[in-house]
Amino acid sequence: MRVVLADLRVVGGYGSRLQPFSRVTAVISYLKKQFHDVPSVHMAYMAAILTRGGHEVAWTRDELAEGDVALVLSSLVDYRNETSWADRMRARGVAVGFVGITASKMPDLFAAHCDFILDGEPEAGVMRLAQGETLRGIVRSEQVNDLDSLPFPRWDLINENHRLRQGIKWSSRPLGGGFPLLASRGCPEHCTYCPHRILAGYRTRSIANIGDELERLCDQVRRPYVIFRDPLFSEQRDRCFELCDEIQARDLTLTFEAETRLDRLDVELLDKLYAAGLRAMSFGVESLDPATLRKSGRRPIPQAHQRTIIEHCRKKGIVTAAFYVLGFLQDDWQSIAATIDYATDLGSTFAQFKILTPYPGTPMFKQLEPLLVEHDWEKFDGYTPTFKHPNLSESELRFLLGAAYTRFYMRPSYLANFLKIKNSAVRELVSRLDRRVNARHSMNEIADFSRPVTC
Hints:
By secondary structure, the protein is α/β, with parallel strands linked by helices. It folds into 2 domains: 2-140, Cobalamin-binding domain (Rossmann fold), CATH 3.40.50; 162-449, tm_1862 like domain (pyruvate-formate lyase- activating enzyme). Helix content is 40%, strand content 15%. The protein is built from 16 helices and 14 strands. It has helices at residues 23-35, 41-52, 79-91, 101-105, 123-130, 155-158, 207-220, 237-249, 267-276, 290-295, 303-316, 333-346, 363-368, 394-409, 412-418, 424-449, and strands spanning 2-6, 56-60, 69-73, 95-99, 116-119, 137-140, 179-181, 184-185, 203-204, 225-228, 255-260, 278-286, 319-326, 350-355. A 6-stranded parallel β-sheet has the order 2-1-3-4-5-6, with helices on both faces. It has a 6-stranded parallel β-sheet with strand order 7-10-11-12-13-14. Helix 8 runs parallel beside helix 9. It is globular and about 65 Å long.
């Protein structure tokens, strides 16, 4: 059997898509396309399962391909293109199945355009397909509890830029991304707006199994750049130490990045991770207000600890990327402005700002469903207001989102952080320049918002 694996969209959960609405967001959008279009780790797992079963695998980002079955990775932001592609493949006589969180939680968007939907993490369902079972309708694909039993992802079968991904580096991540790896799955936290924990439970792989995959990758690629896709990489501190020891005991030469919570890091652990190859990390700050975070199921992290970790990362040369969410129900203009000010003051290398988006299947969606004003699912992209906010209009939310990106990236200290400048005299000069730039931003914002804002 010949199976076509189709990854037709941007990476990540339901997907995100930043349509530029200012000069700054145009640059950010371009860079996201160059450095964040990372191939799906689930696709690489499916390729491994199918080839282990003796089947031929083809991979595509957009072209139609010959095959017996096609498995399409689903998203919200591009589901029309995905279903159109599926219709054209079915017209050729190819059976089509959809996989991923969107198809699992919103099967009605895909059911008329496919032969089956794998509901859940796809590996168990793909094993049934590989064993010769004909799949029809909505097929429950149970989570694999023993993650060590899965074959290692086959990046050679689904990565069109395999060599380029080890090419030019900008900051820490190479142009074209890197090699995603899941050391664990699911998330033990309870944030009501996050889709990471709604598809399957939290499980971990053994350290030896992760070490085997890393060693295999190092044998195939010189100094690979690994992107740990775990929602909470450092949840278990002792386990992180064990992984670092494993990497060093095997004398593996690699660099990696990971996503975590800042309260799951400390100076000693950061030093250990850096010695093993950590060069970048991302984390959620979300909002400055602890009460807002608690109402959304997120445990606040003391500001002093956040600053300690960011400062130590700056000293070590670890790139940091902070995530912020604007437009929680408790937010107003002043609270969002305070969060933006905190983001610039905290001084992470990068920052990503998004508008609160109620993703289907999350507790937040149930809470905000009566307030929805947007019914085009492709606009649930993280950057478009989708519900009637009690305190802010759509134009105000969009304006504040644009102001967040401008204030963060258009300031001298951003460049100083990016270039890892540590000289105290230079930093003091940069701080004075920041104050002037912020005053100019304030003047421009007042002038811009006094005019009609179009959305």
